[in-house]
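Notes to self after the call with IL:
- keep both proteins in one doc
- input above output, always
- annotate only the second one for now

Protein 1:
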Amino acid sequence: MRSYCLLLLMTIFFPNLRAQVFEVNGGSSSLYDAQGGTLTAKGPSYDASLGAGIVAGKLVGGANLTKVIGRATYLAGDDYIQFVLPTDTFDTSHYVIAMGAGVKGKWGGTDVFAFAGATSNSFDSPFFEGVRAESPAGILFLRKPIGAHLAATSNMVFSNQTTAIEGLEWRPEKFLKAALAGGVGANQPYGAASFDLTRAMFDIKAAYISAGSQFHRVAVEAPLMSEPDRENVLVTFRPSSHMTLSAGRNNFLSPVGTTETEVRSSVDNVSAGLQVAGAGLTGSFYHSTFQGNSNDSMAFGAERNLFWGMHVAANYFESRPNNAPLTKSFVSNITEKMTPRLNVTEYVSRSQGQTTVSFGGEFLSNPMTVSAEYQTFYVPERNSAPFEQALIVDVRLQLFHGLTLHGASLVAPDGGLKYTADTQVTAARQGQNAPLGGQENSLVRASMGNMLLRGRVVDTEGRPVAGAALMIDDLLVYTDDDGLYYVRERKPHTHQLKVMVSQFLNGGVYRVVSAPETIRGTYDKNEPETVIVVERAAGAGS
């Protein structure tokens, strides 16, 4: 019912909103055992989505509407709420899923986030997010600056179990931060202190956390996340631009399986990196403990660019668990850049006395991206023959503007070959001609006005990035298939430019390499374009 209500609100609001970008994404995956889709709409002051599908034979769905009105942002539906404490030095990715309504903004110099509804768990798939309400909850997060360098925080969640953690953050310089936090989390005591110092030659991160054995920030069935516990420290030393040394210790409260029961675990590590004669060398040693068992491991790697666009890499791994036999493996690959759009890779691996040779490659173009490679997987469930070799293929086709088809093969934990197939359609609607936000100098992407703001978004190899999201003052614009964007205005103004990497439409995960902070319109179409360079994050999909 909540999804239908939000759909009704979206239907009412959409015709009255300008500069809309609509995206439909849907498909099927045997790996996730899911089929479904999502309708998303984006505008200069709102984001909205509605998704539904079937996961493991169950019909689930979710919806979200985020709308900016004045200085406040209003939320309705399902939302991922970031839950970060000032002492979170090592991991700032904690969040809670909730459904209901909320608001965030700044009033009286205090940053406020308030939400009322229920905590939720999620059913994830590549095409939509489904949620299910768990427990009624109220959430209130506050942050108040006290002077120039000190800030107080308060994180409270009122549900079947109570969380109330107060904190202080002291930042006298950009490179130095110290913080304290204390209270209760899910009815368990909590106290923490942290220190973070970053300099040119060294970094020091340290924290000590004293928490109840079953501490959670919020008591939920999912997602279950590890929490830092006891002493945590990481020291990184850079004696030169070619060498990096680091050593650290981390302790955690880790969930066991899919239960909320937590046990203590730890990881000690020492690592080194060296750049010499054009080659990159790395080495790491680890000692870990979990549920009474321990493991001593090591990893060594080397890589180098050779002549004619060739790249060579080799890695050696060794694991010594206290309750299982020693394992060793060696993996190497050679990648040859045949053309700017075509790479060919040869793989050689040796593990447990077996040697495997395989081949792969990647072809990139504006209308098509194809990659194929043989990979060897270790499947513990297949005790007599645990190694499974499979051809992993990933194909993405842009048939015409706004329509993308994607398919990929994957190997499941049981060794079976699975697939994912999906399609994405993007369309833009200019909307009414009223100025955005009532501002006299608002930008309108239309033929009115002689001043032109234009530019291009490319990756580090100069390839255009389609569907890149840019915020020009309060106007959200997207690049076309050639990576181009343009906006017209009547009079020249200087505008703030932000690259919204979290809202790119092509499904990739990016970081900004270079981008100007401001842009300005010009009469001359022959003026150089504004160039924004982004880089796909390591491990992100095509």
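Protein 2 (the one to annotate):
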Amino acid sequence: MCGILGSVNKAFEQDTLELIHHRGPDDNDIVQCTINEDDIYFGHVRLSIQDLSTAGHQPMYSDNKKFLIIFNGEIYNHLELRKRLNDITFNGHSDTETIVNYLAKYGIESAKEFNGIFAFSLLDIEKKKLYIVRDRFGVKPLYYYHKDKKFLFSSEMKPILKMLSNFKLDMNALNEYLVLRYNPSPKTMVQGIKKVYPGEILEYDLNEHILHKITNINEALIPNIKIDRNKSEGYWVDAVSEKLETAVERQMIGDVEVGSFLSGGIDSALITAIASKYTKNKIKTFCIGFNGSDEFNEADDAKRSAKILGTEHHDIIADSSDYMRNLAESTYINEEPNGTENTFAQYEVSKLGAKYTKVILAGQGADEIFMGYGKYSAELKRDKYLPLIKLAKQFKFLFSSPKYHKMQRALYSLTEEHILNRFEKIYTVYREEEKQKLLESEFSNHQTGLYYFYNLIPEELSALDKMSILDTYTSLSDELLMYGDKMTMATSIEMRVPFLDNDLVALAQKIPNQYKIKNGIHKYILKEVAKKYLPDEIINRPKKGFDMPSLEWFQGDLNSDIMQLLCSKDSLITNYINKNEIENIILRYKNKKEFDVRKIYLLMNIEHLLQLLNKRL
């Protein structure tokens, strides 16, 4: 796992590459070449995992010297791909050497054959074309900026920000963020800086200085998703078990020890149980707990799981003082505002894991492809209970107390007939009237970043299946996996996600949702698979994840700290958002009249982003 940085007609030195040093502290290099009158710079920082020798050094040329690559990620099937390259004499056994020669022989669109997590750039020296590519689920981030004859791209935004002479906050992106709590690709909060869509292949033509899309790997896959209703429950249990076991085994590849994040729930326990079969050493596991209500402290559950699974377990306990001290740092690392509080937890547990290993498996993706979230149940039951929901909406004053914010959101969203509009309302943090108070302006209706992937989904699929698929390619990619990558790479750890193995996802997308939610049980089919590996104690344990006692903190210990952060004379957010309204929100927490922790967390993220931009690196 590594970091990449490249540019056309914009030189950068070691100090700029150093901004992503944490992604690859083992080795680094910058290569410069000239094509026509254009100067191309490829920079790379390396976290050595496959082929620890100098044979894995990047930037790397193909065997015929006609292609140059900088690569971030892991290709789990690269040894299978290498068998098709009999004419190549390899210098080592890295996946980078495999794919640069594979792309040289079979073309840029052969990236669709890669089973792994990746973001890379390939320079075709003869044809004078430069490509940037992101894996199909967006596990690895990739940013770019294009203006006139300058083209910049990087694993993270910081090097691009450093190379730009000026930049502005994108108010349309801010507006969208207050709804979705993140910005789906291609948008970021900074004008001019974009994200490559998950699965997208972009080409920069050095002859014409034009950037355009070659294809998106997902455009051939998502429209062809079909639910297979002819298989039995037993068939799906065996098939998922086989694919998951293969996925985990694949992702144990590497020349370093592999550990696992272990919460108290089923996803991480299942991954850990299977991974233990493919390592000679006792697998190391890592968890974080929080001081506060027992509801949020799953450290004991994780310890119990570790004991059952026979792992070498390590954990830490965090409190409110840790939260404020590290919030600014984790937001700086994440670069994009993100409304998921687990960002902080992921950073803390990653720092713990970094003391012991370079590679850690995680359970992300299971909730999306196997329907683990409560909103899936709501959508499943919507048609049946719609008359009651509409009736309840007529009496919504009964649910006017802030304590009923989840019910308010349900009434707001579930009565919406248009499927995508309903999904957007389900995700909504600040409703339209609330946004207008914050921004003191109205924004014309526009398509959010959800439309691109939604429009690829077959029309005949149910709304529930559409929601699951949409989540897989949007909120999972640009919200959850985004902070997962940034927080782990900040501590020089590679996070691998077996549930997002290409073959496993393709299988999961065929399974009827009646086997994903059955008798009110979420991820039913996965829990049936888990019976082969785990005891009932773990399988039926209530889900907690990395949830934190934030509401307690926001209403108590941290309230004055939040007021200082957002409403002092040094606060930057008040240049964009109504200060009086921010103060009102903070006071509502203090007076226990606000219970949705996301609202203030989103604003704190914006402030820290503005501080990052203000530093100008």
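Annotation: The chain has a mean pLDDT of 91. The first strand starts at residue 2 and ends at 8.
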